[in-house]
Amino acid sequence: LAKTTQPISMDSYEGQEVNITCSHNNIATNDYITWYQQFPSQGPRFIIQGYKTKVTNEVASLFIPADRKSSTLSLPRVSLSDTAVYYCLVGGTSGGYNKLIFGAGTRLAVHP
Amino acid sequence: DADVTQTPRNRITKTGKRIMLECSQTKGHDRMYWYRQDPGLGLRLIYYSFDVKDINKGEISDGYSVSRQAQAKFSLSLESAIPNQTALYFCATSDRRDAYRETQYFGPGTRLLVL
């Protein structure tokens, strides 16, 4: 199973760009990288997914270097409502086996 | 995600009681999952199902059982509840576009307290 390592917590201020890096040294060739966001007492919500290089959507960007051993979630100009836990997941289900593992995530606190 | 619903949203029960948590989805996904989350921790997988006739244990299945009654319904049972099963329980479905890429959609959660 591809294990991921993320910072336990981060602090930022409104209007700043936040970058959260995830390490996944043993990522498999076909694994995708997916990020989820979770607010207190709610289920995680899909943010972005990618395989290599850069992916951008309306809420975030995902940067993946050529070796794919890490990835960085970038949140542009955060607001107080971006305070949440962010999870990095690698892999999916293959051969009937579920590889998705939610670690402890990164707790982001955005301050006024 | 409003397409994934869980009932009840909150439940208080006593040690030794049997309880069932229910999950329904209108997303048309084949794959469904049950997770539990303890305060300050990530989600841990209890059971998952890739199809109506398919049931698989996750990392913490002891003390739990599941039933996949239909594509849209996946129930989690605690046969004899114990206090350390107090947690937040999430149901999820997944959109599996290929063998290695899928997105999970989560319900609102059920908060369970076992006294």
The residue ranges of chain A in which pLDDT falls below 50 over 5 or more consecutive positions are none
- CA radius of gyration of chain B is 13 Å
* Class from secondary-structure proportions of chain A: mainly beta
Instruction: Compute the number of helices of chain B.
Output: 0
Global mean pLDDT of chain B: 92
Estimate percent helicity of chain B.
Answer: under 10%
Q: What general form of chain A does the structure show?
A: globular
* Structural class by helix and strand composition of chain B: mainly beta
Biggest sheet architecture of chain A = 5 strands, mixed
Could you give a short account of the major beta sheet of chain B? 7 strands, mixed
Number of H- or I-type helical stretches of chain A: 0
Proportion of residues in β-strands of chain B: over 45%
Strands across the major sheet of chain A, in which order?
A: 1-11-8-3-4
What integer value in Å does the Rg of chain A equal?
Answer: 14 Å
The average pLDDT score of chain A comes to 89
- How far the N terminus sits from the C terminus of chain A, by CA atoms, comes to 39 Å
Instruction: Determine the most extensive contact between two protein chains.
Output: A-B, 28 and 32 residues
Uncertain runs of chain B are none
Order of helices and strands of chain B: EEEEEEEEEEE
The share of residues in extended strands of chain A comes to: over 45%
Report on this model:
- Chain A has 112 residues and is an all-beta fold.
- Chain A is 0% helix and 48% strand.
- In chain A, a hairpin with a 5-residue loop joins strand 6 and strand 7.
- Chain A is globular.
- In chain A, 36% of the residues are buried.
- With 115 residues, chain B is mainly β.
- Chain B is 0% helix and 62% strand.
- Chain B contains no helices and eleven strands.
- In chain B, strands 2, 4, 5, 6, 9, 10 and 11 form a seven-stranded mixed sheet that branches.
- In chain B, a hairpin with a 2-residue loop joins strand 7 and strand 8 (73-78).
- The model of chain B has no long low-confidence stretch (mean pLDDT 92).
